[in-house]
């Protein structure tokens, strides 16, 4: 299916994420073999570290988060020129493309190529979850009379209350039973001192938690379905006036 | 807006914790705005003590902090295990097992009493008793065999 593509699409980051279970004997050092294959395109290599934190909760004191432990969980290979990142972790693979985003064909082809290399090296026992996430930044012009001039998936205040909103964070989980997927839609705004604009972050994460133990090529058919679901959420949430800003 | 009919299988739904961890997969500045705001929201949501107690994970970490704070200078295992917070962790039952196993994977400590009390098992071979690292390894293997560690 063809979708309208926007010359000034508001995408600031797109990522394809594949969660896996690796054999016990695969260590982070194995994953660096991937870098040997791609270091011409992704010259920077960094260790990824996962952090653990304790919540310090007390009825008398403010809640605090205390970092308690950190451990390496994989590697990150970066292309600073093209703003692309490959993450090879013990729990999965992620390909991130930061702004400027070109199109799905180029993005998914490169992700697939990189995944195939990761798969050959890490030999996953199974794929446990796949996800496709697009983070958009929509600079709404001020003064703004009504969000619904631009975006239709928004928090709603009772009409008898003051309609001004200083800040918000909204997260929705929407199931799509037809493709056995979920969408996590997150919207918030960047705190800004510039009163002439309203930077809205519109984050669409569509994912499927399903086990694949062989023929991993099937996941790319599922990514096409996830993409259609993501596009539906994006296009149906925006008004013509908003779309006009991106054309 | 109406509530959706959620009839997918239960495993399709993430816990809050899963949602938090997914945020670090994204790398850009805008994803940082989302995750920072989300963390603030989580902290704000967890602040009421009743909500915290309803969540096994936050309940466990609250009790763990209390236990560690009060027993940090104690080298007596029995004294530490008799602490009310430690006893409350035992009282959490099976819900505490994966959380304790997660703890001993990071830092072997005196959690073996609690694991034994909850599970009724002792996978530590006699020759390894008293050796913290070996005891932790025995329990971690037990956790893997019994599906508490993936």
Please tell me about this protein's structure.
- The complex is a heterodimer of chains A (247) and B (150).
- Chain A is 23% helix and 40% strand.
- With 247 residues, chain A is α+β, with helices and mostly antiparallel strands.
- Chain A has one domain: 2-Layer Sandwich (TATA-Binding Protein), CATH 3.30.310.
- Chain A has a 9-stranded antiparallel beta sheet with strand order 2-3-4-5-1-6-9-8-7.
- In chain A, a hairpin with a 7-residue loop joins strand 8 (181-189) and strand 9 (197-208).
- Chain B is built from 9 helices and no strands.
- Chain B has helices spanning 16-22, 29-46, 49-54, 56-71, 77-81, 84-91, 97-106, 112-119, 132-145.
- At the A-B interface, strand 1, strand 2, strand 3, strand 5 and strand 6 of A face helix 1, helix 2 and helix 4 of B.
What can be said about this structure in brief?
With 247 residues, chain A is α+β, with helices and mostly antiparallel strands. In chain A, 23% of the residues lie in helices and 40% in strands.
